[in-house]
């Protein structure tokens, strides 16, 4: 089964909102064995929706449409679909009762506009929305399925999980789709491709190799589709082993692992701990680590020392050093790392201080300069970086570089 | 001029990677006055690319294609475009020299595969890439423009800014496109629409009103397109004033403002300061605040007290209170807020403690429970929330709710 996702909303086309719905649905379809051939974002107009569905019908059997189901005038998806399928709107008494009940519970006035949310197409299967007032709709005609869902992410996700996936599973007959990622450090895309030439030429038809370069690392992905799940999984596992043998052991890791994964794995294994002292990164490193569950095993926390006084009063950075070298300096980064290590008793510590911009306040360094310090059990390493501009890039790169430096120190000490 | 964006890459269709390029380009096109009618993500195959371009040609005059320009076998965009435009690849000596120079500088071996990056279409205008080895290509035929750019975000952005936008500006003749957002608190979508019925019916043809609901707030957006920039900007400004008068003054704010904007505005104005003490949110609140520039005017920093010992040793939460009520409790949230306020001397403090899940460790509360405390100059407010699951949602909602509670306290004290 081939699928297409259509997200409807001018907010995406004018760049006001980032479409995250498509990726979420893409993951679900991939796991189910449905081949997604296209995702499209279009405008909130009848004409754009009709064109979009016509085009999707020509390349896919399953079309998932999100957005445009609100009660307001700018939302036209439902009316367009009803016309498209020569259907008509009828009052759905159960959905009306659901909506009224939602309003009663929250003590909000129920208006005629809300009643329009219970006017639903006669021929479609109605998918009740437990998290909002816009019901989902499942149209089926000439072997094609068109599913319309609200665009609010948590409502859309609730409907996919509770209503859409169980129905698709009942249809069944999907092949297995599997991918496995390997992360390669210190090898460029073209050098990796040269090294993998023979391996790539010998891949079976149903498995593809992809290269995903990004600053500092290259991800390699083996992707396969096959009716026989066991055969596919074994083939990918076996080929993955061969692929890893092409490179030096320390330069490749199996899985789409991040630096935080590496840090978590080794510190948890060794029962060691980590604390952070963040100035310019302002909590970004701590936040990145604590996005993962289970990190309380090794992550103690730390100090966001955005203000110079906090660097002195909590982390014990000396006033003289700040005055002599300014807050953005090698010396301050070093004292911050040692300070938070002492304060928390952690085995490892990360510290950052820099000018994320756009202004440099009263420091000696230009915008983009960041000092990162890593304190281990027997030394402190400090490096100076120029991450350029703009601010978001400086913060993101400083965070990634700090986690990379720490993973390397941890791996050295294994 | 109507535009379409095509992003190429299986990594998007299998859900491995989130497409952020489209939004970035969408913003640039909107500011320029180019109407984006569709964004599409498709697979790395010749067939998909040809279909995608054929379809885009039928609805747009300008097609921006990103991705598939690497030197490896999985990248076929360049070869497909050359065939599509009946063009041929020729060696571009300047680009070859550029690439060799990049490799020399970084001390990396230059291979034949890299040389293939300098084989470029004869008829296209070549756009030099200062940040990578994949040059951009500008094809023009029968009044349609197709621009091919690398998919690596910072390379694509560099090429858009340095090469694509200046050329589009030269073509010129675009209308003005303007939008203005208003954020409404405490009013639902349907009630807002009822209140705005007359306003909406009287809008001129060239201005549209859109409703963007999300948990806890509703954004209203006026969007317009007109050849006369002055007329358009004045009309939107005037209508914005009328729109705001429909609601109570305290429930609507002009601009796509976040809670951090509100906090920054008032604390900076009043020369007051803020510190945070984060347990479950793990640095997310600090990180959100410091994403913005200029926040050092009011934001001091704070403590990420992920581990219970840090709550005691740095924030001074008493061991007895933790043992009596467990770390996830109203009492601990309150002591954390007061502790960080005292430690930093801040006027306001935020504290969070909760179970983000998936496990509850050794606390009394279930997964999803978060206590948020706000310390002001004369009191501490603590609230208990159940943000459910999964972990990411709990963390995101706890962060948003904490910033919302703080803005409300700040606004009360005005």
Automatic annotation (TrEMBL), chains A, B:
It comes from the Bacteria. Transmembrane segments: none annotated. Residues 4-170 form the MoaB/Mog domain. Pfam families: CinA, MoCF_biosynth. Belongs to the CinA family. This is CinA-like protein.
């Amino acid at each position: 089964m081939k699928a297409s996702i259509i997200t409807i909303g001018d907010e995406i086309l004018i760049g006001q909102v980032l479409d995250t719905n498509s990726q979420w649905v893409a993951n679900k379809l991939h796991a189910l064995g449905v081949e997604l051939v296209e995702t499209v974002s279009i405008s909130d107009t009848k004409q754009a929706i009709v064109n979009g569905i016509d085009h999707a019908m020509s390349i896919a059997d399953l079309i998932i449409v999100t957005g445009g189901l609100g009660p307001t005038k700018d939302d036209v998806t439902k009316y367009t679909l009803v016309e498209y399928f020569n259907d008509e709107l009828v009052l759905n008494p159960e959905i009306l009762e659901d909506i009224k009940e939602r309003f009663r519970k929250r003590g909000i006035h129920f208006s005629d506009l809300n009643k329009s949310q219970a006017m639903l197409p006669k021929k479609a299967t109605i998918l009740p929305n437990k998290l909002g007032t816009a019901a989902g709709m499942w149209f089926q005609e000439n072997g094609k399925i068109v599913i319309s869902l609200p665009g609010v992410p948590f409502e859309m996700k609730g409907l996919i999980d509770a209503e859409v996936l169980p129905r698709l599973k009942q249809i069944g007959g999907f092949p297995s789709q599997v991918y496995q990622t390997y992360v390669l450090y210190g090898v460029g895309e073209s050098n990796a491709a040269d090294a993998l030439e023979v391996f790539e030429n010998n891949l079976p038809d149903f498995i593809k190799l992809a290269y995903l370069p990004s600053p500092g690392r290259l991800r390699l992905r083996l992707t396969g589709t096959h009716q026989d799940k066991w055969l596919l999984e074994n083939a990918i596992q076996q080929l993955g082993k061969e692929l890893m043998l092409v490179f030096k052991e320390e330069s490749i890791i199996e899985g789409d692992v991040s630096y935080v994964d590496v840090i978590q794995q080794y510190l948890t294994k060794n029962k060691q701990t980590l604390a952070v002292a963040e100035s310019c990164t302002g909590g970004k490193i701590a936040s990145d680590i604590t996005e993962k569950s289970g990190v309380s095993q090794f992550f103690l926390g730390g100090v966001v020392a955005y203000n110079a006084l906090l660097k002195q009063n909590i982390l014990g950075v000396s006033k003289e050093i700040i005055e002599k070298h300014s807050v953005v300096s090698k010396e301050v980064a070093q004292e911050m790392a040692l300070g938070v290590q002492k304060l928390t008793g952690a085995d490892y510590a990360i510290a950052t201080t820099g000018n994320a911009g756009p202004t440099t306040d009263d420091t000696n360094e230009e915008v983009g300069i960041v000092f990162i310090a890593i304190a281990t059990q027997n030394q402190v390493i400090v490096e100076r970086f120029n991450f350029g501009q703009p601010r978001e890039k400086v913060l993101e790169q400083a965070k990634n570089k700090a986690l990379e430096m720490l993973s390397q120190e941890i791996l050295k000490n294994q």
